[in-house]
Design brief:
195 residues, alpha+beta, Arc Repressor Mutant, subunit A, 2 domains, three-stranded antiparallel β-sheet
C-alpha cells in the first residue's frame, strides 16, 4: 500500500489496493469532491492527483462526479487546468434573495474593464505598453485595484530598458469570467465590433 499525505494520526492510503475496484473508485470520487467543495478557489490537478495515487484516471473520476451532479443546483467546472464547484447560473437570484447579498459582486468602472480586457488580450504587457495602446497614462492605482481583486498578477520582466514588470491575468480572472482558459476569450475583433 502506498501511503502519502497523511496526518500524524492517520496516513492517507492513496492507492486503496485493499478495496474492491468499485469501492476504490467511489472513495476516490468522494475525496476529489470533498477537496473541491472545501476549497474556495480553483483546485489544481496536482493536488487532486496526490489523494488518488498515480494509477487512478483523474479525468474519468471528474466525469463521473460531473455526471452525478446533473440536476443538482451546483456543478464541477474546469478552470485553468483545475476544478471548482460553481452554483448553476439559474440559481443566482435565489441565492441573492436568501442571503441578502444585494449587488456585492465584483464591480468595475468602464476604465478598469477596458484595461483588464487589454491586459487579457495583450499579455504579458507592461504599463508602458498599456500607455502606448491607450494613448495616455494608465495609473498604477488602477492596476493595483485589479491586482487587489486578484484578476491581474505580475508577469515576466519586459526585455525593454529597465526591465519593467509586465502584467498578466490570473486564475482568479478565469474564475470570475467563467473561462476554462484564455482560449475561451471571445475573438478580439468581435468584441471591438460589439463594444
Amino acid at each position: 500500500m502506498a501511503k502519502e499525505l497523511g496526518s500524524d494520526l492517520d496516513p492517507l492510503d492513496v492507492e486503496l489496493s485493499d478495496l474492491p475496484q468499485e469501492l476504490r473508485w467511489r472513495e476516490w470520487m468522494c475525496r476529489i469532491e470533498a477537496i473541491i467543495f472545501a476549497s474556495g478557489k480553483v483546485v489544481p490537478r496536482e493536488m487532486l492527483q496526490k489523494v488518488i495515487g498515480k494509477s487512478a484516471n483523474l479525468e474519468l473520476l471528474i466525469e463521473d462526479i460531473q455526471a452525478e451532479l446533473k440536476g443538482r443546483p451546483y456543478e464541477l467546472v474546469a478552470i485553468a487546468g483545475g476544478w471548482m464547484h460553481r452554483t448553476r447560473p439559474q440559481y443566482s437570484n435565489a441565492i441573492h434573495a436568501a442571503a441578502d447579498l444585494g449587488e456585492k459582486g465584483m464591480s468595475f468602472t468602464e476604465t478598469e474593464m477596458t484595461v483588464l480586457a487589454t491586459i487579457a488580450y495583450h499579455q504579458p504587457i507592461s504599463r508602458a505598453g498599456l500607455n502606448e495602446l491607450f494613448g495616455r497614462e494608465v495609473s498604477r492605482d488602477l492596476i493595483s485595484r485589479l491586482q487587489f481583486k486578484k484578476l491581474v498578477g505580475l508577469g515576466p520582466r519586459s526585455p525593454q530598458r529597465g526591465a519593467p514588470f509586465t502584467y498578466v491575468t490570473t486564475v482568479g480572472f478565469l474564475a470570475a469570467f467563467d473561462l476554462k482558459s484564455l482560449r475561451d476569450l471571445p475573438d478580439q475583433s468581435e468584441v471591438e465590433r460589439n463594444g
